[in-house]
């Protein structure tokens, strides 16, 4: 297969190129590749490396309120949005463990891998690393019945450092949150007020002397980015870059609850050069589920986002006159590099996960033109361009906006 008549974004600008694919790999990237292979005409559009979402929660059944999706539904939405690899989560010492999650993702349209939830070093965590997984998710708040402390984090860090992995940290100060929330009930805005910026800052400061190589998940305030040394990277997620704390003044503010809450997106954009990856923290809850939990503290945090990450972030970079190549690094190359995955670049030897992106199409987000959930927090947002053709593992999955394949995603390590 050869993709002809496309443009590729590089650090030096936009260049014309052709890409030859054999089986599931890119074998040539140059101009005027002679061949009798099947030819895909890119019609002068932009060719992107498939997106890599470092942070999704798909088919999450282990919390009090399960998500509304299936693996097939969320990964189909991912493919339509130009994200060809998702990184979800498995537990080291409770269900669903890594074997169970691998089985659940057998119906995935996109490639996938997993971070491992752990609150201490155990034999099961060691086994996960022996299987080839190299990242741990450490929660600084109680999660799925797991409680954590810094001694457990230190033991994990000593092990992960030796194995050349990294620790992804949910950084919120649980004691501060519980103190501020003590005996409170009422409007969803209390979720924002009891999880102030200081909660994130305090948690980050506490882990800095412990973690050798880390990633702060879903950074929600700009001041956090100012604290981070070179060995601790920052992940931003879609909702923190788009939505502001004004959503908590809406009558339906319960729909927009996330942990940590959305705050001031411009404080993140001012420091976009300090962000290493952009994910989504995708949680597909249909509207009815959210409506059943409208009063603090009985709220359901999480927003659907995996389909919109690539087009919305590209749109923001265009509107803000930021280099398109930098958007691609945040959406594809950097998360792939962080997780040692052979994706995220249009170069020889890389996995053939590619997206033909049509910049001529402008459209507004509506629940009627996306493939996830029965509502969207981004209703009415105008997007520049759309993923039109999506190739995963060297096979076409979406052809000019139409699904042409069955679920064939692979486990990557």
UniProtKB/TrEMBL annotation:
GO cellular component: cytosol
GO terms for MF: hydrolase activity, acting on carbon-nitrogen (but not peptide) bonds, in cyclic amides
Amidohydrolase-related domain boundaries: 47-397
Pfam families hit by this protein: Amidohydro_1 (PF01979)
The protein, known as: Amidohydrolase family protein
Superkingdom field: Archaea
InterPro entries hit by this protein: Amidohydro-rel (IPR006680), Metal-dep_hydrolase_composite (IPR011059), Metal_Hydrolase (IPR032466), Metallo-dep_Hydrolases_sf (IPR050378)
Species annotation: Sulfurisphaera javensis
CC cofactor: Zn(2+)
